[in-house]
Amino acid sequence: MFTLDQIRSFVAVAEELHFGHAAERLNMTQPPLSRQIQKLEKTVGVQLIERDNRKVALTTAGKAFLADARKLLVSAEQAPLTARRIARGQAGVLRIGFTAASGFSVLGTLLSTLSEQLPDVDVDLREQVTREQVDSLINGEIDLGLARPPIDHELFESRLLLSEALELVVPEGHPLAALDRPVAGADLREVPLIMYSPTKARYFYDLAIRNVPIQHGNVVHTVSQILTMVSLVAAGRGVALVPASAQRLGVAGVTHLPLADQTTDVVELHAIWRRGQRNPALHRLLSALDGHVSST
């Protein structure tokens, strides 16, 4: 295999087309320079440079080899810098799992922070529910998850990124919108309700039944995605309990109403990562997010 010294020698001769000038450029004498070229040609298996007493010229193969040789030298010079940048978390790849709901709440802010603080870090985004994110973190398939509680703190470290209120979304012009007060559980007794799936959207299902006296006989649809839920409300199919950030979906034909006897931070979204995670880019991002918790 050829060496970088041989490549440097070849590039110098190819650019100078003069062994004496190339030797001076490399701070060496001509005999070792000639030996470097000979060893390179032997390794490559073709003549790269034609030389006689009057001139030095590249062969056709030499001209083709020169382009790749220059790229090799650039890569060799960049490699240590890239390694240092990756070690400092300034470059590399960060694989992020996110729920659909986090896509319209904190994901945009997170990506903006990455672009500003770590512009040379490539981001690999994967839409996954919390359960899938947990599996991917355990298997080393992602570096960071944007997930809902509960969190296994023996396996994962976490940071609260968003806390927000649970709201009621109703069709535009619905009688509940005319109450001029927060909606109470008693107001929902005879109202068709679009509810979360207890298996595919367990976090929001548990949250809803824990905070509002749900009349299960009123449930007309069971879905797992918030966008689907709000779209059904817009179609007049019922009302639904959604996080306040769902307003950012911009679905027309709906009104968001506050709920009575509710705190403003019942819905949580956390950044989670496996304990012992060593990706420097992850730790740079976490440092950039220090103290950043959003409330909606």
Automatic annotation (TrEMBL):
SUPFAM superfamilies: Periplasmic binding protein-like II, Winged helix' DNA-binding domain. PROSITE patterns: HTH_LYSR. Keywords: DNA-binding, Transcription, Transcription regulation. Pfam families: HTH_1, LysR_substrate. Residues 2-59 form the HTH lysR-type domain. Belongs to the LysR transcriptional regulatory family. PANTHER family: HCA OPERON TRANSCRIPTIONAL ACTIVATOR HCAR, TRANSCRIPTIONAL DUAL REGULATOR HCAR-RELATED. This is LysR family transcriptional regulator. It comes from Nesterenkonia aethiopica.
